[in-house]
């Protein structure tokens, strides 16, 4: 081995921390390939390196023959006896076949082999350092954008945030310093790959764990997280200690804690709700700000389905923008939550309209549909109708002047009959 090659080994051992024997093993393999090109297909060719003395040899095990017919496999007896005095025909002896200028070739090959081993070692270091960090939050700098993926510098290593792990409302620029959730560390054929995310629901969970000390000491627990990244997140919290308000702990004094998290999420809306064993109470809490009555929640156990009926004015609040409130509630509970318009009040109103119209139709002997029109127009009793004229009826209903006049004539005839009966 030349002094150049020895210097290369010593440099990488000192600066990169690669074990000398590991490097020698890698170099031997690389030099064996180089030797085959220089020496040819010699029998049982190998390379021996003495890392302490700085010596390198290419050796082949040849068979002693009386007459050489295969130059790369045999050695003539006279030549063999110069190497080993008692050599006989048929013996196997080690012959040095180190090519000329092998030192320069060795140094060049060694550098390539060591660089390759160094890259492999770095990949192994990545995997060893990050294999147990799945689920952690790391900070990194956006290094480059690669066909929709975001490549992030994590110091000595790089992570990748694929398009599916990005937040749709966020824009990423080279040089941005951001926090990321480590989804997984995968040992692929190309080497370890650190998969990062900013859209994962557990990203929000971990942010709360960093901000809220009560989560760290387990006096408050996060029982569920549902998220539509960039838009809205629902997080359910619980405390076994009745003296602790889990929602208040997560919100913080004057909202300081949750504001820090919302800032990190670029103003994504975060709902913090009380977790409850009572499914009916939990769904009511989850669908806030909509106000829901107990008797309007129907739980269908067999179908794992919950039907929630809300008043018309509460419906937009319960469903939420683009249906987010209802969808996130379903994910948080793990049940199919159906938010429906409550028709019971409307049905009750329609029943009363029909009852009043039927009474008017029976008393005046007019068509039921005419009576319905009168009631809907506010003329809901004989006494009220008696105070109106034909113009009032046509203005307050969809009836024409002829129908209005007919109703008034019928009412007048009834009044005359009633008066005659009284006499």
UniProtKB/TrEMBL annotation:
Compartments in which it is found: Cytoplasm
InterPro entries: KH_dom, KH_dom-like_a/b, KH_NusA_2nd, KH_sf_prok-type, NA-bd_OB-fold, NusA_N_sf, S1_domain, TF_NusA
Keyword Cytoplasm carried by entry: yes
GO cellular component: cytosol
Pfam families: KH_NusA_1st (PF13184), KH_NusA_2nd (PF26594), NusA_N (PF08529), S1 (PF00575)
One record GO biological process: transcription antitermination
Molecular function GO labels: DNA-binding transcription factor activity; RNA binding
SUPFAM superfamilies in the record: Nucleic acid-binding proteins (SSF50249), Prokaryotic type KH domain (KH-domain type II) (SSF54814), Transcription factor NusA, N-terminal domain (SSF69705)
The protein's role, per its UniProt record: Participates in both transcription termination and antitermination.
Protein family per UniProt: Belongs to the NusA family.
Assembly with partners or alone: Monomer. Binds directly to the core enzyme of the DNA-dependent RNA polymerase and to nascent RNA.
Name used for this protein in its record: Transcription termination/antitermination protein NusA
């Amino acid at each position: 081995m030349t002094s150049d090659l020895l210097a290369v080994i010593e440099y990488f051992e000192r600066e990169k921390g690669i074990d000398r024997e590991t490097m020698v093993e890698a170099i031997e393999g690389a030099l064996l390939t180089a030797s085959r090109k220089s020496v040819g297909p010699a029998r049982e060719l190998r390379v021996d390196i003495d890392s302490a003395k700085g010596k390198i040899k290419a050796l082949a095990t040849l068979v002693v023959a009386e007459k050489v017919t295969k130059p790369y496999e045999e050695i003539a007896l006279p030549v063999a006896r110069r190497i080993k005095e008692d050599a006989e025909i048929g013996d196997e002896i080690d012959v040095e076949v180190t090519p000329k200028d092998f030192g320069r070739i060795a140094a060049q090959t060694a550098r390539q082999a060591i660089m390759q081993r160094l890259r492999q070692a770095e990949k192994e270091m990545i995997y060893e350092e990050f294999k147990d960090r799945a689920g952690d939050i790391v900070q990194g700098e956006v290094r480059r954008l690669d066909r929709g993926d975001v490549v992030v510098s994590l110091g000595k290593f790089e992570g990748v945030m694929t398009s599916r792990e990005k937040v749709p409302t966020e824009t990423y620029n080279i040089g941005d310093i951001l926090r990321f959730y480590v989804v997984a560390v995968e040992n692929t054929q190309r080497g370890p790959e650190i998969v990062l995310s900013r859209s994962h629901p557990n990203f929000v969970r971990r942010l709360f764990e960093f901000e809220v000390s009560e989560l760290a000491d387990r006096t408050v627990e996060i029982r569920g997280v549902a998220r539509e990244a960039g838009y809205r997140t629902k997080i359910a919290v619980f405390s076994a200690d009745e003296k602790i308000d889990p929602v208040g702990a997560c919100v913080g004094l004057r909202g300081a804690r949750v504001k820090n998290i919302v800032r990190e999420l670029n103003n994504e809306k975060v709902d913090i709700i009380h977790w409850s064993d009572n499914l009916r109470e939990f769904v009511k809490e989850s669908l806030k700000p909509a106000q829901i009555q107990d008797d309007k929640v129907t739980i269908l156990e067999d179908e794992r389905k919950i039907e929630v009926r809300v008043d018309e004015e509460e419906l937009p609040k319960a469903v939420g923008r683009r249906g987010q409130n209802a969808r996130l509630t379903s994910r948080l509970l793990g049940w199919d939550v159906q938010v429906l318009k409550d028709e019971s009040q409307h049905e009750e109103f329609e029943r009363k309209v029909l009852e009043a119209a039927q009474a008017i139709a029976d008393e005046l002997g007019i068509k039921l549909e005419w009576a319905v029109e009168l009631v809907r127009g506010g003329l809901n009793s004989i006494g009220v109708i008696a105070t109106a004229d034909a113009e009032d009826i046509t203005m307050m209903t969809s009836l024409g002047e002829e129908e209005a006049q007919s109703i008034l004539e019928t009412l007048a005839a009834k009044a005359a009959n009633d008066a005659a009966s009284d006499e």
